[in-house]
Amino acid sequence: MLKFVVWFGIVTFITVVLMFVSMCVSYTIESEFDTNDPFECGFVEMCDMHMPFCIHFFVVGLLFLVFDMELVVSLPLIMMNINTIAWIVIWLLYSLILFVGIIMEIMWGSLDWDK
């Protein structure tokens, strides 16, 4: 239990520090939305303001996020004081679910770059 409390405290501290650094480094531009609107100020836009977005990059990023979360979820299991057989069974079931998911993504062609 003490290991978990120490681990949780360290993770919380690192999270708070990173959020504070992010707030200190970032800046915001204070502006009124009505004055910057091209229709409000009389300007006619010359091009489409919508940036094209490739859904394939989104899918690959989402898959990266899922497999990254596998690592994040698996690491605390190592520190828990459960017996080895139960930990191996839990980890194998979790990995099997993710492995079946990646096989399905490959079969559906979500990871093909040639499309």
Q: What are its keywords?
A:
115 residues; mainly alpha; 68% helix; flat; mitochondrion; NADH-ubiquinone oxidoreductase chain 3; NAD; EC 7.1.1.2
Write structural notes for this entry.
It is a single chain. The chain is mainly alpha-helical and 115 residues long. It has one domain. Helix content is 68%, strand content 0%. Helix 3 runs antiparallel to helix 4. The longest helix has 25 residues.
Quantity of strands, as a count:
0
- Supply the number of helical segments: 4
The largest sheet, given as strand count, sense and whether it forms a barrel, is: none
Helix-strand category: mainly alpha
Helix content: 55-70%
Catalytic activity: a ubiquinone + NADH + 5 H(+)(in) = a ubiquinol + NAD(+) + 4 H(+)(out)
InterPro entries: NADH_UbQ/plastoQ_OxRdtase_su3, NDAH_ubi_oxred_su3_sf
Family: Belongs to the complex I subunit 3 family.
Protein name: NADH-ubiquinone oxidoreductase chain 3
